[in-house]
Task: structure prediction
Amino acid sequence: MKRGEKTILILTLVLVVGLMGWNFHRQRESTANDSSIPFYSNASAELSREAGELIRKYECRSCHTLWTLRDMLRAVPAPALDGIGSLRDREWLFAYLSAPNPQEILPSRLKKEFQMPSYAGLPEDERRRLAEYLASLQVKDWYLKETRTAECSALTGESCP
Ligand code: HEC
Result:
């Protein structure tokens, strides 16, 4: 083998190993960041099951996205409930679900048929369970940060920290 060929071979090897190392490093970083689903719940298995039944029974997902899923038949522009517990606490959620007119708490610009219905008529323990479960739905910090940064860039047209 000529000297020039040897040098090229060695350089190529160094490059390949370097790229592999970099890729490995990147992969490790992204798992540390867990870039899959940014939402989680800290509810007990029992509460998740009970609240899950209520959410199915009252068809909250016919309007809301939850567990990053939503029913495909209707396209109501309701806020997603994933991570809602990072925004609202249990008392607020209980009061909201118990309000005879939820639009007094959160004003709505939607047509009446798409607005949040009142669940004041549900038994109190069901409202409590729903509120407790919703409060357990959290969003991971890094996602909140990325969302804020994206929002800030969109609003200001500049790159935000
Ligand atoms: C008919 C569609 C519809 C259904 C069914 C529905 N919601 Fe809503 N919900 C909305 C809309 C729309 C809003 C935003 C406020 C508004 O426009 O009235 C909302 C708001 C909320 C909020 C406040 C979100 C925030 O940003 O603070 C919570 C919590 C909530 N809903 C929970 C529920 C739960 C729990 C159920 C089932 C028991 C449910 N919703 C069923 C349409 C719906």
